[in-house]
Amino acid sequence: MQSGHLYVILLLISIYLLLKASFIWQSCRLRFDYIISIYAVMYLILCEIIEEDRGAWHHARGVLMIAVMKAISLAFDTRADARLKDAFSILSFLGYICCPANCIFGPWTSFGEYLTVQTKQKSHFSINLRYFAQILTNLVVSISCVLLSNCTDASLFFGHPWKWVSAYGSAFSFRTSHYFISFLSQATMVSYGFTGIKNTAPKSPTDRYVSYFGYVVVRPLSIEIPRSLVDVVVVWNIPMHIFLKQYVFRVVKPSGTFTALFVTYMVSSLLHGLNFQLWAVLLTLGLWSYVEYNIRKKLAAIFSACVLVNKCSTSCSKHKVGKTKVLSILINTIFFILCVINLAYLGFILEGDNGFSLVDALKKWQSLDYTTHWLALVGLVFYYII
Fold first, then answer.
1. Using the 8-state DSSP alphabet, how is residue 201 labeled?
2. Do 77 and 176 reside in the same domain of the chain?
3. Which domain holds residue 175?
4. pTM for the predicted model, two decimal places
5. Is-catalytic flag, 272?
6. 280 shares its domain with 172
7. Helices marked H in 153-217 — which ranges?
């Protein structure tokens, strides 16, 4: 038995026993949902530390990450919802954690969503032309993305004399490889019977994606043509965003918004393992998102313009200067350009293989003159001036 398989089995056994213990001692003051969450994340980190074979860990990490996220959400959901607790059993637990639709490529789904799909399969799940069309569409887009990832960087951007074009090419290659996995996971989710995405606002762009793809993990157009980095963070991995918002940010928010943001950053970083280059990217992303959010909020208040990080509705009544006015277009275009620069800067250090050191990452950023960090500093000063 490979070590990766052993890690998964031990995690399943320990989480199941902890959940059963939480049901037995539910009257005591111990918050087993917190205990299980901390244990699951620490288990993931410990496995990475003790595993000497980096190749074996690379194959097991994704499976363990999804399992840990499911364990955390299951602990909170069974505590909050008696119906989910009643539906919990050894079979439903194993079926949920080891669900073939998302145990390898993801995405995370809640226990409630899994049970809904199981119920639907037994009642009125229908296999029709649209079902196959959505699977095929996801697979075609997925294959197109991996071809784009491998070919575009090598043919158009590699060795370009202007460093920013080369950086954009490397970042674009990384993003398209992410789209490849995301659309592949969408195909497996649709094939299993999952539809839509939970917690999506009515009439949102994601609804249109659902009609085409059946299930939505990522929205590439919102990343490649970004309105703001905040928007990019949300649509990069929608289920992951929902997980962090519901089971980390909202849980910690009573202790303060800054504390909630910091803990969310830490949990997100730890879930991705001891990847220091990713930690640096997430920290920088959080810093710039914070600066951008506050600047645009203040500019929207000063000019009464539709320039917030989130797009205003067509019939916005909060602002006098609508999104089609010259001032709004100018401000939004400036932040669009800054966002593209930041995506190139942040993605530039992520295109390397696993094991890429933080020192090498900082050298790459140094070659781009630490542009995003300087922009964040200037933005912070500008925010306090206005």
1. P
2. no
3. 129-224
4. 0.92
5. yes
6. no
7. 163-192, 205-213
